[in-house]
Design a protein that fits this description.
This protein is of the alpha+beta class. Helix content is 52%, strand content 8%. The strands form six sheets. A five-stranded mixed β-sheet has the order 2-1-5-3-4, with helices on one face. α3 crosses α40 and α39 runs antiparallel to α40. It is globular and about 100 Å long.
């Protein structure tokens, strides 16, 4: 189990080498404790990882005594290590570490990273020596806590396997490809270098902060594609080449002398060497070009490692190798860690980099094994998985070990399954049943079972078209019949497989009855569909989480590649060894005709079912016998040859959706999130005390409960978008928590009140039992379905409109839907419900377009030969985004209708139908007919297909010019991610007929769905931490988040989305505690993990950049902050396009930064832009629009233009009054601001009358700026005309002021938004202790302010006010870090936390915190 490097995070290999500047982006003036920055120098995971957590651990310990016991588990003790070369180093170990962990730490330390083959001896103080076995824990061997123990590395003998592994490791070390540098690190390093250069020149002059060009690029998203990817870092060459020599394998007489391998090496000096690798060492032999001479070379030296040998024979190698180690050491430790399942990238470098010779790469690819290891035994995935599941998990440490083992095995399985599926689809792996129809072929490779699933939705479309065509043609009776028959077959066969793929192996043949042709019957019941495979994966996951001892599931993954969907499962023990018909003990293989039952099995299933809200009920089999089940009829309980009880085919572990009951909707089931939400709501209705849910919608309550905690916090983080996914996720987490609570409460109450569902109602199976009970079961399911339709959907639509949930792209929208328990098939209704919000309407309709187009392109890819794939994809994209009229003469005749007509006819033979849909193309006549299928697309026919599909699947009518309305880049990005395509990152001209060339299509990658388990213990700690954070209990929250972080590090390693989550919350806590440098450190970790685990342009990555910017700004490093903001805007423009409230919120934050450094003209332009966006997207009376006005009022206040400030604040007040009522704290705050501005205006006038000299930088400056920017003036005038008829539009100074004010109102809204978000937001939640004086003090102080003070105060007080109150609660204008008490000023990620502004959120203080940060959950 090598995945333990994760743990390395808590250790430090203690040689302090150079301080590393990357972690140092907190520039020199930031107060950093060395522990945070120093000593990442050695660059490899453990070192650096180890180093960072030190401060965390320290603070953790002080944070709260009561956690002392738990913390003890993480205590580290120094243990000296004597290396093979005789050097000494020190590791920080805990007694719970296994020897594998120690090996991982040594692999990460620069001194020992190239040693792979050694034994470890532990010397104790008594003088005894213990030989350590890999799977021992150190504590089992000796007590390291007492000190005076040390480890010694002793060279072990190589064998064939370990010497190849050693060569592989050496090549890996000599390459920088494993280093994944984050742009944030690069920015910080550049900034650092720039500062140092400036300091050397003794420049005290403040560097000019460059202006961002974001306003321009936001409108032209295609040109920003080129900026997403940074060019790869320059390689450092250590050696020309190291390849396996053609003298291999060693002749038999040399084997007897210990020769294992021969290598040819060319050094940088140009010398060629032939190296012998023996069981003990490597040495240069005396071979000539063609004849082996095994004698050592005269001048030779030998070494136990390859690196050691190279250092002796090549001085240039020595120097370059040191450089590589330094480069890796200067990187953030997380940048050296490999990510287990990295996300697919949809953009590739352009121009395409040169492909250079690399013998090592060529050798690796020739040993292609589709996921199985070449040397040694194949892994028995099933045995590994079930054995890990049987680990004891009574104590905390045991649970961590079990979770880690499960995570590692499942991740390895998914990795191997992905490689195997590619082999199956590329036809490199032969089927085990070659005589069956092709669509039912099954494959076994590397102990993994593979089978295909078909796209039933597409079938339905084809079927419907075929029957329409046939009716039109008024064909003869026989064909008419066949078409009818066809129609019946379809829904069943397509949607009905009672058993999914794996069933194939188990019962593929059993289910057949002799008198019906095998193909037809199989097609009707056995073929897995996309829907059944998805549901099976969800069901398997649910039973795994229920974790009932003695009940087992198979490992499972779904791989989509080149249009095919393959289901991969671990092999059920004994299934391939003969007839297992007698081993079926539970459930049915023939759709309920015969149902098996066993007491033992039933008890276990019943226990799991209760945890999943499933009811024990009685069904009738084909012969009328009543059988008691606690699971769907078609599940199968089988005893494997290992005597374990396996439950398979879990396609319906939640009940049918009663809103969908037509043909073809067999697999339309409710989501588990909905079931828990519904039970929660019902429990709440039945007794107000139960589960404390006063909301009608549990989801709501969750999102307001635990999640709220985050909200407030987050509210600063991402303000507007705050909720993005964050909330989605929160909701999910919250729900789970609520569910658990619910569970406890309800158990405490009356067990009979717990709601259980019968999974077999509304299905073709006959239910036994009295009619009342059956009616009650049906009523329960109907109630849950109507809860989805009447409560969950409207609540979700409301949350979207209030920006409570603010998804940025298709992926985050779907995550949000799922978190609220809503299936994607309802997306059409959500689109209708959000029609009045342009950005939401776009988001939903674009997602429908992408999902419809995905089926069409996959269908085309399935029928495309390998050499045509690039052509097919570019042609598809041209039809989709360009204007393709027609192609070759035969292509046109073949347009889609004919194609589908053919499809419908082939459907007469069930096998023909299925093979059309899913079979892989083969050479021969059949193929020739089809090879130009993709050529038959034209723009018209493709969009007609998409529109028809949207209607059929989502009941959604696309608008007439949907083609022109879709946001091309966002939609193509979404489509590439769903299908796994990579295109060149260049500027595309979408106005041309064919924007894409074949050369733009760079890759097609597999898209994988899996059920890798996550650590529930860490999740619970995070949930509790969120609540503590919401209550402002910072030290307690810090301890909880740190603990969750430590556990996740040990279970999953650092590269995991949940670890990023912990880092985000830790950053937030440190920010609130006033430790900006610490917050930046944690935020940087989150950023690196998000880039690597979610993708460079995922919305969460954008929010991470936004938060980094706010924290840097808090340290007064505005230039660095603005660079991060620029990146955040670039990423947002790719995922959502320029029209999204989050973009406006980010503009407000950027404006605040410019305002703080005195660049008022730039700040006003950004505010104006934000205001325009919000008015257009959300409407003139949305709270976010008020935030904009408030921000503008603050900006004008900074410039001394108090009249404008007052006018804008009045607009803010009007909106808040209308939306929230006069008693809301935010409305009152706004009223106080109005008074302040009025008072300042009066003071100013009084000074004028007294003849005091006006400071030229005050009001006049505002007017000058506006005159200098005619666009501002026009906007002001437009706003003035629209907003107040009182202001005239001539441009005399007075009326300009009026106009400006009116216009400023426009600006104002943005500003206000910002400020409101910050200030007003913050206020909502109860009185924050503010770094700057509370508004009311400023207002009531009543002292006259001289103008120049007003300006400074404005930029100081105004800023403080605004900043304390802007959407980015993060920016304290003078870098005042908020004190711990100020928990309300959460960092906003990218803009005003609407959540925060939402009236509903004005619940108790506890709800205050969570909006923005969440977006990344």
């Amino acid at each position: 189990m090598a995945g333990k490097s994760s743990k390395g995070k808590n250790r430090k290999v203690s040689q302090q080498s150079t301080t590393n500047s990357s972690e140092l982006h907190v520039s020199s003036d930031a107060p950093l404790n060395d522990s945070s920055t120093a000593s990442e120098a050695n660059g490899d995971k453990s070192l650096t990882e180890s180093i960072e957590p030190k401060p965390e651990v320290k603070e953790q310990d002080n944070a709260s005594e009561q956690h002392q016991a738990k913390q003890a588990e993480v205590h580290l003790y120094p243990v000296p290590v004597k290396t093979q070369g005789g050097e000494k180093l020190e590791l920080q170990l805990s007694p719970g570490d296994s020897v594998m962990d120690v090996r991982q730490f040594l692999l990460d330390a620069p001194e020992t990273c190239f040693m792979t083959c050694y034994d470890l001896l532990l010397h104790t103080k008594e003088g005894s020596v213990h030989h350590l076995e890999d799977y021992n824990e150190i504590s089992e061997v000796a007590d390291i806590t007492s000190g005076s123990c040390f480890l010694e590395m002793i060279a072990a003998l190589y064998d064939d396997r370990s010497i190849r592994a050693h060569v592989h490791r050496t090549r890996e070390l000599l390459s920088l490809l494993t280093l994944h540098s984050s742009l944030s690190t690069t920015l910080a390093l550049q900034h650092e270098t720039g500062r140092n250069a400036a300091n050397n020149k003794a420049d005290a002059v403040k560097a000019e902060v460059p202006e961002l060009d974001n306003l321009g690029f936001m409108e032209n998203v295609t040109s920003s594609l080129t900026s997403l990817l940074s060019s790869p870092s320059k390689e450092i060459k250590c050696v020309e080449s190291i390849v396996f020599s053609s003298f291999n394998p060693p002749p038999s007489y040399r084997r007897l002398s210990g020769d294992l391998i021969y290598l040819d090496m060319v050094t940088l000096e140009g010398n060629k060497y032939c190296v012998t690798g023996t069981t003990k060492s490597f040495y240069v032999n005396s071979s000539t070009e063609n004849i082996l001479d095994p004698k050592p070379n005269k001048a030779t030296s030998e070494a136990t490692t390859l690196v050691g040998l190279l250092q002796k024979i090549s001085p240039k190698f020595k120097k370059a190798f040191r450089e590589i180690l330094e480069r890796k050491a200067s990187a953030h430790p997380f940048e050296n860690v490999q990510s287990l399942l990295p996300p697919n990238t949809w953009l590739g470098l352009y121009p395409i980099p040169d492909h250079k010779r690399d013998a090592a790469r060529a050798e690796n690819s020739l040993t292609l094994s589709f996921g199985s290891e070449l040397i040694g035994m194949q892994r028995d995935w099933n045995e590994e998985l079930q054995a890990c599941r049987e680990f004891s998990h009574a104590t905390h440490q045991e649970r961590i070990l079990r979770d880690r083992a499960l995570y590692k095995v499942t991740s390895d399985f998914v990795d191997a399954a992905t490689s195997g599926a590619i082999g199956v689809i590329s036809r490199c792996i032969p089927p085990i049943n070659p005589t069956d129809p092709e669509c039912f072929h099954m494959y076994v490779h590397n102990n993994i079972f593979f089978s295909f699933a078909i796209d039933a939705d597409l079938e339905q479309l084809a079927q419907r078209r075929a029957s329409e065509e046939l009716r039109k043609v008024e064909s003869t009776a026989p064909s008419q019949n066949s078409s009818d028959k066809n129609e019946e077959v379809l829904p069943q066969s397509a949607l009905g497989g009672s058993s999914v793929p794996h069933a194939g192996s188990i019962n593929g043949t059993e289910a057949l009855s002799p008198d019906v042709p095998a193909e037809t019957q199989l097609a009707e019941s056995e073929q897995a569909t996309y829907a059944s495979a998805n549901n099976d994966l969800k069901g398997t996951k649910a039973f795994q989480e229920a974790d009932v001892p003695g009940l087992y599931n198979l490992a499972m993954a779904i791989i989509d590649y080149r249009g095919h969907r393959v289901v991969a499962q671990s092999v059920l023990p004994g299934i391939l060894q003969g007839d297992k018909s007698d081993s079926l003990l539970y459930g049915s293989v023939d759709n309920g005709k015969k149902i098996c039952w066993s007491e033992d099995f039933h008890t276990k299933v019943l226990e799991a079912s209760k945890r999943l809200h499933l009811k024990e009920h009685t069904v009738l089999d084909g012969s009328g016998n009543a059988v008691k089940l606690a699971a769907p009829v078609e599940c199968k309980g089988i005893v494997g040859s290992d005597d374990r009880h396996y439950l398979l085919d879990l396609m319906r572990v939640t009940p049918r959706d009663a809103n969908y009951n037509g043909p073809g909707s067999r697999f339309c089931i409710l989501r588990p999130e909905l079931i828990t939400a519904f039970c929660h709501a019902e429990a709440g209705d039945k007794s107000s005390s139960g589960c404390e849910s006063q909301e009608e919608n549990p989801v709501a309550s969750d999102s307001l409960g635990a999640d709220n905690a985050e909200e407030s916090v987050k509210s600063e983080e991402n303000a507007v978008s705050a909720t993005t996914d964050a909330q989605l996720q929160n909701t999910v987490d919250g729900e789970k928590q609520n569910i658990q609570e619910c569970g406890c409460h309800s158990n405490g109450k009356d067990a009979t009140k717990e709601i259980l569902f019968n999974p077999n109602v509304f299905t073709e199976f006959k239910l036994a039992g009295n009619p009342e009970e059956i009616a009650a079961d049906e009523e329960n399911v109907r109630k849950a379905s109507s809860y989805l339709k009447d409560v969950a959907l409207p609540k979700f639509i409301h949350d979207l409109c209030t920006l409570e949930v603010s998804p940025m792209d298709g992926q985050t929208l779907i995550e949000a839907l799922h978190a609220h328990g809503i299936n994607v098939r309802y997306i059409g209704q959500i689109a209708e419900g959000t029609r009045h919000m342009p950005h939401l309407w776009d988001l939903c309709s674009n997602e429908i377009v992408v999902r419809s187009a995905k089926h069409v392109i996959k269908d085309a890819l399935r029928d495309t030969e390998d050499h045509d794939i690039g052509h097919a994809i570019s042609h598809f994209f041209n039809c989709f985004a360009g204007k393709v009229q027609g192609v070759s003469a035969k292509g046109v005749a073949n347009s889609t209708h004919t194609k589908n007509h053919k499809k419908g006819q082939s459907g007469h033979h069930a096998s023909g139908k299925s093979s059309k849909v899913q079979a892989k193309p083969r050479s021969g006549g059949y193929m020739k007919k089809k090879q130009s299928l993709f050529l038959s697309f034209t723009s018209e026919s493709l969009w007609a297909d998409i529109e028809e599909f949207a209607k059929l699947k989502y009941q959604f009518e696309l608008s007439e010019d949907a083609r022109n309305q879709v946001k091309k880049i966002s939609v193509i990005r979404n489509l590439c991610q769903k299908v796994g395509m990579t295109i060149a990152a260049r500027k595309y001209d979408f106005s041309s007929a064919t924007p894409f060339q074949v050369s733009d299509i760079l890759n097609v990658q597999p898209v994988v769905k899996h059920s890798i388990p996550i650590c529930s213990e860490a999740k619970d700690l995070v949930e509790t931490g969120k609540l503590q954070l919401a209550e402002g209990m910072l030290s307690e929250a810090y301890v909880l988040f740190s603990e969750a972080f430590t556990i996740l590090q040990q279970v999953t390693g650092p590269m995991h989305r949940e670890v990023a989550n912990c880092c985000r919350y830790l950053a937030m806590v440190l920010y609130h505690a006033g430790d900006m440098a610490g917050a930046i450190m944690q935020q940087h970790k989150e950023l690196i993990i998000n880039e690597r685990c979610l993708g460079l342009d995922h919305p969460d990555t954008a929010h991470s950049y936004g938060n980094m910017a706010l924290f840097y700004h808090g340290l007064n490093q505005t230039e660095l902050a603005l660079r991060h903001m620029s990146r955040a805007l670039l990423l947002l423009s790719l995922s959502s396009g320029p029209d999204h409230p989050d973009v406006a919120a980010t503009f407000i934050n950027v404006a605040m930064m410019y305002q703080d450094i005195g660049k008022m003209d730039t700040a006003l332009r950004y505010l104006q832009e934000a205001l325009k966006k919000n008015e257009r997207l959300l409407g003139e009376e949305h709270i976010q629009t008020a935030v904009c006005y408030h921000a503008l009022a603050i900006a004008f206040n900074c410039m001394g233009a108090f009249k404008l400030s007052h006018q804008h604040e009045t607009k803010t007040y009007d909106i808040l009054l209308k939306q929230l009522g006069e008693d809301d704290s935010r409305t009152k705050d706004s009223q106080n601001w109005m008074k302040t501005f009025k008072m300042r205006e009066l003071q100013l006038n009084a000074q004028k009358q007294k003849g005091q000299a006006l400071n030229p930088s005050s009001a006049q400056k505002a007017i000058d700026i506006i005159k200098a920017h005619p666009d501002l003036l026009q906007a002001f005038q437009a706003a003035a005309v629209a907003g107040s008829s009182s202001s005239t539009s001539h441009v005399g100074k007075k009326s300009l002021n009026g106009a400006v004010v009116g216009a400023a109102r426009g600006l104002d809204e943005r500003a206000r938004k910002r400020a409101a978000a910050k200030a007003l937001l913050v206020r909502r939640h109860g009185g924050p202790a503010q770094a700057s004086p509370p508004t009311s003090n400023i207002i009531n102080s009543g002292e006259p302010l001289p103008t120049d003070v007003a300006v400074n105060e404005a930029s100081d007080g105004g800023k403080k006010e605004s900043d304390n109150q802007t959407s980015n609660g993060v920016l304290g204008s003078e870098g005042h870090e908020p004190k711990p008490g100020q928990q309300d000023q959460a960092p906003v990620g990218l803009g005003p936390g609407l959540a925060a502004l939402d009236a509903k959120k004005l619940k108790p203080k506890s709800k205050a915190k969570a909006t923005t940060a969440e977006s990344s959950t």
